[in-house]
TrEMBL record:
Region (Disordered): 18-37, 272-293
Taxonomy of the source species: Eukaryota, Fungi, Dikarya, Ascomycota, Pezizomycotina
Cofactor(s) essential for the protein: Mn(2+); Co(2+); Cd(2+)
Compositional bias per record (Low complexity), positions renumbered to this chain: 23-36
Name of the featured protein: Phospho-2-dehydro-3-deoxyheptonate aldolase
Any one Gene Ontology molecular-function term assigned to this protein's record: 3-deoxy-7-phosphoheptulonate synthase activity
Enzyme Commission number, as recorded: 2.5.1.54
Amino acid sequence: MVDSSASILVQREVAAEATFNGSQKPKPESWSPSSWTAKPIKQDAIYTDRKNVEKSLAKLQRLPPIVTPSEIVKLKDSLRDVALGKAFLLQGGDCAELFDYCEENAIESKIKLLLQMSLVLIWGINKPVVRIARMAGQYAKPRSSPTEMVNGKEISSFRGDILNGYDINERTLDPSRLVSAYFHSAATLNFVRASLSSGIADLHRPLDWGLGHVQDPELQAKYSSIVASITDSLRFMQTVGADTAGQLRTVDLFTSHEGLLLEYEQSLTRRLKRPTSGTTPLTRGPADGTAAADGQAYYNTSAHFLWVGDRTRQIDGAHIEYFRGIENPIGVKIGPTTASSDILTLLRTLNPSREVGKITLITRYGASKVRDLLPSHIRIVEGSEYTRCVVWQCDPMHGNTRSTSTGIKTRQFADIFTELSETLAIHKEQGSYLGGVHLELTGDAVTECTGGSEGLKDADLSLNYTSFCDPRLNEKQALEMAFLIAGHFRG
Ligand code: PEP
Ligand code: MN
């Protein structure tokens, strides 16, 4: 049962008085889906129309789960394998998913791209790949400033479709968007599930690799030989009848988003029976007491995987309080502003029982800073009781954003790959395992990041720049990134 929306309101007023300066109320011993409301919160959504917020939250609390505990546990099992070095994690999708992206072609192209990238990675790394889409719920965005200047006028920033609209006339927070987010999320996931069960990921079907844009003959030859090798392997498996159980007909694709808007997340947090399927979690520490006698636990049913953003991971803040109580596997963004001393506190707060693979540390320093900062962060974790317990994932996007001379937000393909290869090298030196990548990408032919084999320049960015938030790799750049990662492993 979730708390009543009326109590959310009362507790939020209490929370508003709390501060980060150590004078806040004592940490509550017990967790509940609403215990975050007693904590100071960053990136808060302050609505003027509170009555309609409560109405939307009450509606959300009645709606059925979007994902189920069985699916969440299945992902946890897979992430345990990633933490143990037996599998690799590919996570990708839009920076800000718009409600408008809930459309057949946009969804299909993203599924196909993630599938193709995963095949390249499986080939290169020689390990199973776990796929998580930043999709079906990535609607809330943290912003560096609450306002922006548009045509000389200061207006509220766009905070993601769950809160307000990009159109300058829709910047007021609109409570009806909370419910709209649920339905767009559910419709997107419904089409993902339907496409998968209808054979979109059927590996018996030829895939369109479209390498025509690769100008460099050496790269063209290299990528073509990877594709030939993958195609040959698939054909061989089919010929020898290796697909008796039909594993080549579909794949798992999990969903994820940043758990930013806690009222929404709370409303979809349900106390449900732990599935009896799935393997027993592998823990390296004492039981954390959450395994209640009634065999139930709290699941966030809005997505399989949620992460805490770089701006909201304060140890005594609302987001960490919320995240410490849910069963889902969770990510935490770690960057140049993360104090080394915070990392173990975060792990001890979020995963006291040391469940292997429960936490993914999503590192995002930037190409120029990763060498200075990542090694000590790895040593702190791997030298502690959390050794071989976390999934290390590299997000080479968020530390590499820059503005062009004309003020367009972009990222250079080379910087993204530099951070990724440095991260791989550093993990190798430290004896740890880089278990995954986290990319902002789209299946469309956008021009938002420069570089890659198409050779996009600053001047080309205006050709098809459609992101309403951060610049994404287009389908060619994303696939090329997968080729480069695979090449790195194959040597
Ligand atoms: C994001 O993943 O879109 C994001 C805002 O990242 P970060 O929290 O790392 O800045
Ligand atoms: Mn982003």
